[in-house]
Amino acid sequence: MSPARGNPAPRIADEEADVVVAGAGLSGVLAGEHIARNGLSCTILEAGPVLDRRLPSCNARHYKEASAPLLEVDPHPWAYRTEGEDADWVRVRAGGGRSLLWGGWLLRPPRQCLLDAERFGRPWPFSHDDMQTHIWRAARALGAREANLEPQFSAVTRDLGLAVEAKRVAPGPCGCRASVSLDLVKATRIRAGSVVTRVLLDSKKRAEGVEFTDVRTGARGVVRARAVVLAASPIETARLLLESLQDLSIEPYRHIGRGLVDHFVAGRLVLVPGPAPSDEPASPFRRAAFVPRFVNLGRAHRRDYVGGFSVELHGPDPLCDLDDDTLNRLGVPRADASGFSFHTVHAVGELAPDPARFMTIDPDSEDAFGRPVPVLHLAWTENEKQMARDMEETATAVADALAPPRATIFPIRETLGRFEISHEAGTCRMGRSSKNSVVNLAGQVHGVPGLFVADASLLPTALDRPHTLPLLALALNTADGVLEFAGRRSSGSH
Question: Which of these, 61, 157, 344, 447, could form a disulfide with 250 (CB 3.0-4.6 Å)?
Fold first, then answer.
C-alpha cells in the first residue's frame, strides 16, 4: 500500500548493516550468504512476502501448495507498460524470486556463445576459460549434480542424430525438488515486504544505503550500509539505477537499460495415450534431458542468422498435472486426464542484443510506491524470424522422435507472438570500460563506489540456453568485489 496523497508517509527507524541487498532471489541470497559468511552483516530487502518456515521438500504436491500463494502478483502496484510489441513480464514478488518457478536447469555455456557475443558487439568481460572457473565455483556452492540419462530420450539421437545430455540440477534439502534461494538462507537477515525505492548516495557520490517502503503500512525507512548490492531483477535493478543516479554526471548512465536481452521459445506437447509411470518420491532429476546447440558452431551447420538455440526435453509426465485451460485446449476432460501422459519439447533461442530492444522509465507515470513505471521497448528482428523457423522445425522433429504410436503433437506457444519476458538480462552489463558498460569486473557500478549489481543485469548476452549458472557465477564474483571493497578477504568457500 502507499500513503494517502497529500499526507506525509510514516517513518521507520533507520537500520544499519555492513551490506544491504535488494532482492531475495537466487542471485541475491547466494551473494548475500557469501558476504555474511565472510564476516560482514548483511540485510536482504525483499519486496514480497517470505515464508516463515521452510518450503516442503519431500512431497511435490505439498511444495506446490505452499509456494502457490507466493507466485501471485497484483499488477496494480507492480505496473509496467510496453512500446512496440506487447509483452507479459513473468515476475515473482516473494522471497525466493523466480527460483520458485524454475525447473532447476544448471547449464554451462559453450565457447561459441562468447564468440557470438563478440559478433553482437557485447563481449563478455571474462574469457571462456575464466568463466568456467567461476561457473565451477557456483555449481559447487549449490551442490549441483548430474542425473542419469533416461532411455526414452535415446530416440532423439537415433532418429535425428542429435546429442542428448542428462539434466544437471541443484537438488533441494531432501532431493525431491530443485533448490530455491530460501534453502540457502543461514547467515543473512531477510526483511520481507520492503520495496527498495532509491539508492542513497553521500556527498562524494558513494553509496551509503537504500530507502524502502513497507508494503503493509506504507511507512518509509532507510537501511544504511557500507555497500549496496542490487539483485532485484534486470528491469527492477535498471529502474533503481535510472532513478537514483539521474543527477550524477557519470558515463555509464547512458548504457543503463540499453542492452535488454532474453530468450524466445518454440514449444510442442506430445499427448500420449496411457498413464505416466509412477516415480514417487518426486525428483528434479527424473524425466528431463537437454539437446545442446547444434547450429552455427564454427563452420558446422551454418545458418543465415547469428547465434543459436538449444532444446529442453521433459516427460512422460501425468496429464492430470496440467491446468484445466490446457486440458480444454487438448480436448481432454479432467475426468479422463489420468489415462494420458505427455512429453514437452521447448526449443530455447537467444534474443540477440539489438537497439530496438531496451527499457526506460516514465517519470510522468508512477506506480503504487511512487516509483517511475518501467517501459519495455520491444521488437522482433529479422534474426529471430529466421531462427524461429529453424526452432519450430527442430521442435516438431524432436516431438516426432519422442512420440509413440497413437500420440498427438500440439504446438503450445506462438514462437513470434506476444513477448514473454522471463529470462531477461543485459540491462546493466558488465565490462572493462565505462564507455560501453555499466559495472566493472568486480560488479561495481563505474564511478559509484559501494554500489554493486548481482543479478542477470550483468550478463552481456542471454546465451543459447537458460543462463542461471553463469548468472550465479557472476553473482559470487560480485560478492567477492563487495568483500574486497570492505577490506575483507574472501574465503573462496560458500
Answer: 447
